[in-house]
Amino acid sequence: MSIAWFQCLAGASGDMMLGALVDAGVPIEQIQLAVDAIGVEPTLLVTEQVTRHGLAATKVEVKAPRTTVIRTWGNVRGLLESADLPEPVRARALDVFARLARAEARVHRTSPEQVHFHEVGALDAIADVIGSCAGLEALGITEAVATAVALGYGMTRSEHGLIPVPAPAVLALLAEVDAPTYAGEVPYEMCTPTGAALLAATVGQWGGMPPMRITAVGAGAGSRDLDEVPNLLRLVVGEPAELEGSAAAPAPVPAGLGEVGTDRAMLIETNVDDLDPRLWSPVLTRLLEAGASDAWITPIMMKKGRPAHTLSVLVGPDAADQVRTVIFKETSTIGLRESAVDKRALVRRTRTVVIGGEEIRIKIAMLDGVVVNAQPEYEDVALAAARLDRPVKAVLAAAAAAAHEAGFTP
Asked: Where does the pLDDT of residue 246 fall: very low under 50, low under 70, confident under 90, or very high at 90 and above?
């Protein structure tokens, strides 16, 4: 059993994932065989050793003929189902493209079957997905963790024209798995839809590097050599390990909670008594955008009877600096309290029900492989209610009933 940790300080893309896997020791020939199994036009994987901020990395370029074919989800599914691939590779690739189809359908307000893949249906994107799935299988990855994902900002060009960064499909893909994200300092597209879909289909927990005995390390390079950050997706592979007697180690997991994820986080707090209360809502929004996993306000009374608020922010080490910056810029505080905390979270999965033709995600929490909680996503419920011109409470009840009928509930 191997565990993988992805460090996404420069986002993620399909070619960066491929480069990280090859750099970690997967033979490029083995990945090429999986790509060849698709049976479309000849597609060649070419590797190059590069540096990013002085760090050695592998860059993989997919050389494929240009094509005017625009594939649907059904077309891609047919290619994958008929290809001579190991079943785990096929299953993960189907999951990746199913997620892409759902995300594009959400963005364009259509159904997944009607989605026309443009960039992600091209031969290079198909090779990125198939190759990455084959590489993960070659390393025996059974569990994956990733840091908060840098998305970038600005504008980029697609088949539909100019679109804002982060791309709408990227937001939809990472929102579906509750991935922590932040813009970062780079005015480019840092996370592509293909990269986001691969992470969403692979990563089960989000946070810092878990306890492991390291067996391989890889770095996959992006195309640009950026000034702001090394343009790398880092991959650390190892065997799960338990840390005993270390102050830096999370507390032991209680017996019977074998599927409770434990992660180290920071609790950042400050008391504020001179901020217009109307500003707290946008402050919380900015903190979550910066990578905080949670943020909340508690009314308090300070000395001399002054009413005030305590701002509390839970954040992983990778996004702590961005969170501090938001607090100092957006509030009137001049100081912070910080402490290390252990987070425990149930394994989460996302499933979908359809109410009146509208897709609603169901967030499922599991303990020892058994569902213990299942709740419809409120944002999906509210959007569906608006489109269907029905009361939100009615759509919420219908979604909960559909989840129960589908066997998603305890």
From this structure: very low
